[in-house]
């Protein structure tokens, strides 16, 4: 294809078609897979929210369970809205979630196009972004909308910064930043990302005007981070020591060890760059990858100050490397809480850092397109499937299958006179049985997980279910044989 023959107006459509094809080929198999684990918790909580007056909207902003993980827009609000618009059909939810990921990739295209001043290079960047193996769990699991939704606000804010006029830039970007913070704490690094884009990629040196534009972002971020740290380090341990201890046990204990942090960074770098994904298996390799990333970032930032204005690609490369690290700022010091899906922001930085120097070569648009083709071929041929073997991904898949089997077992055991069903208490049943049996089986009875089934006295109307049903044939979509369409 001769890029010069593609009309400017056709590029967004070309990007949409191309990215949809890549995401569909890589993740279309996820459409129609059942809810899992935390999904049922959010469904149960939002089932109690009924909006009949404007004041009811405030319920979405209640800090549940605490301010530690305050993500109202990507938990309560998103699950309530999805259920209102899509019902409880996982296929519709899957398609909608996949659509948000495609929008994120389109924003990556829009950002890269403006920074690289090239539509072909912008599309190549978006394709590298789409091929990040770490996206898999975020595409599969609805509860990871806490990341996907935050990425949408984060990239949307960067796109607005680059696209809006001088008067609208600051207020519009600030508004999107506040939305991002209400999505999750992963948006807290946004002011630093905007500053990096302005100084490194755009080459701005009008410090007074720049301070006027980014100052409000930094002020809001400072208040947010201070409040978060005050709550996590001081208030929560005093008010609820058990919950604070539980959060640490769940992997939220901060570790400030440079060597460990480099290893954590390396794990995320391999999840953000498809060709590196097959190489990362040992702690030593991850530490080396993390160290190389930091060295390259420092060198690129230094080169930006020394480079001639005629070499803007150096600034974009430096900006990409800085954005890679900033996008992981909230998880780099959590070595026991590593999820590849956290690369939603960092993958854009990695993609920019790779494409910027390639696009600067003679006939760079052709080289960038060829490199993107290699990434897509590797992703569709290997890394998209390999990512499904990650422990976190297989755990979510297993919990999804287990949920359908438990619902099937309860449905078959309960009769017309059943008033209560008891099941063994574990993490899966505790998350599942709140209102799941009412939502998906239209049941009128209660289901209670208990620690010891033998201690439950027998009585009329009580049914004891000791284990989930046998495998449902096509386990990943076996829920279709169990779930009913319930009224209301």
In short:
This protein is mainly α. It is built from 19 helices and 3 strands.
- Principal-axes shape call: globular
- How widely separated are the two ends? 52 Å
Biggest beta sheet attributes: 3 strands, parallel
Low-pLDDT residue spans: none
Quaternary structure type: single chain
Helical residues, percent: 55-70%
Structural class: mainly alpha
Mean pLDDT: 93
Instruction: Give the strand order of the largest sheet, numbering strands 1, 2, ... along the chain.
Output: 2-1-3
Number of domains: 2
Radius of gyration (Å) = 24 Å
Account of the protein in words:
- The chain folds into 2 domains: 381 residues, no CATH class; 89 residues, no CATH class.
- Helix content is 62%, strand content 3%.
- The mean pLDDT is 93.
- The protein is globular, with a radius of gyration of 24 Å.
- Strands 2-1-3 form a 3-stranded parallel beta sheet, with no helix packed on it.
- By secondary structure, it is mainly α.
- It starts with 10 loop residues before the first helix and ends in a 24-residue tail after the last strand.
What is the topology?
Blueprint lengths: L10 H17 L10 H9 L29 H11 L3 H27 L2 H12 L4 H6 L4 H19 L2 H18 L6 H12 L5 H33 L1 H12 L5 H15 L10 H24 L5 H15 L19 H14 L4 H23 L4 H23 L6 E5 L2 H6 L3 H6 L4 E5 L11 E3 L24
Parallel strand pairs: 1-2, 1-3
Helix pairs in contact: 1-4, 1-5, 1-16, 2-3, 4-5, 4-7, 5-15, 5-16, 7-8, 7-9, 8-10, 9-10, 9-14, 10-11, 12-13, 12-15, 13-14, 14-15
What labels would you give this structure?
488 residues, mainly alpha, 3-stranded parallel sheet, 62% helix, globular
């Amino acid at each position: 294809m001769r890029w010069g023959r593609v009309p400017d107006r056709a590029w967004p459509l070309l990007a949409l078609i191309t990215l949809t094809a890549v995401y569909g080929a890589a993740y279309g198999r996820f459409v129609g897979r059942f809810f899992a684990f935390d999904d049922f918790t959010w469904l149960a909580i939002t089932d109690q929210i009924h909006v009949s007056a404007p004041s009811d909207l405030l319920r979405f902003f209640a800090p549940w369970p605490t301010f530690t993980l305050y993500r109202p827009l990507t938990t309560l609000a998103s699950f309530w809205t999805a259920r209102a618009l899509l019902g409880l059909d996982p296929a519709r939810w899957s398609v909608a979630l996949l659509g948000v990921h495609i929008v994120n990739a389109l924003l990556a295209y829009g950002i890269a196009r403006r920074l690289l001043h090239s539509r072909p290079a912008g599309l190549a960047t978006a394709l590298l972004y789409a091929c990040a193996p770490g996206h898999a769990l975020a595409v599969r699991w609805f509860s990871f909308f806490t990341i996907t939704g935050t990425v949408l606000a984060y990239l949307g804010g960067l796109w607005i910064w680059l696209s809006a006029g001088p008067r609208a830039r600051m207020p519009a970007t600030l508004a999107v930043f506040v939305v991002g913070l209400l999505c999750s704490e992963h948006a807290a690094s946004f002011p630093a990302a905007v500053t990096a884009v302005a100084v490194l990629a755009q080459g701005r040196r009008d410090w007074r005007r720049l301070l006027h534009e980014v100052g409000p972002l930094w002020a809001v971020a400072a208040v947010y981070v201070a409040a978060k740290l005050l709550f996590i380090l001081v208030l929560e341990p005093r008010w609820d020591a058990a919950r604070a201890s539980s959060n640490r046990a769940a992997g939220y204990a901060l570790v400030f060890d440079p060597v460990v942090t480099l290893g954590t960074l390396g794990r995320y770098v391999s999840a953000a760059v498809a060709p590196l994904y097959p190489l990362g298996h040992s702690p030593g390799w991850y530490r080396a990858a993390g160290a190389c990333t930091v060295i390259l970032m420092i060198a690129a930032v230094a080169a930006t100050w020394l480079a001639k204005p005629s070499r803007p690609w150096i600034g974009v490369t430096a900006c990409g490397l800085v954005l890679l690290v900033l996008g992981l700022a909230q998880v780099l010091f959590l070595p026991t809480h590593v999820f590849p899906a956290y690369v939603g922001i960092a993958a854009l930085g990695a993609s920019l850092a790779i494409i910027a120097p390639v696009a600067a070569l003679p006939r760079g648009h052709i080289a960038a397109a060829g490199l993107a083709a290699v990434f897509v071929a590797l992703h569709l041929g290997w890394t998209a499937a390999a990512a499904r073997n990650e422990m976190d991904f297989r755990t979510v898949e297993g919990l999804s299958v287990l949920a359908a089997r438990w619902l099937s077992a309860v449905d078959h055991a309960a009769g017309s006179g059943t008033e209560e069903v008891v099941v063994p208490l574990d993490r899966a049943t505790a998350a599942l049985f709140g209102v799941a049996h009412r939502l998906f089986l239209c049941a009128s009875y209660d289901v209670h997980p208990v620690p010891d089934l033998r201690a439950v006295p027998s009585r009329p109307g009580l049914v004891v279910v000791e284990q989930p049903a046998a495998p449902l044939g096509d386990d990943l979509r076996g829920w279709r044989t169990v779930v009913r369409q319930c009224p209301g």
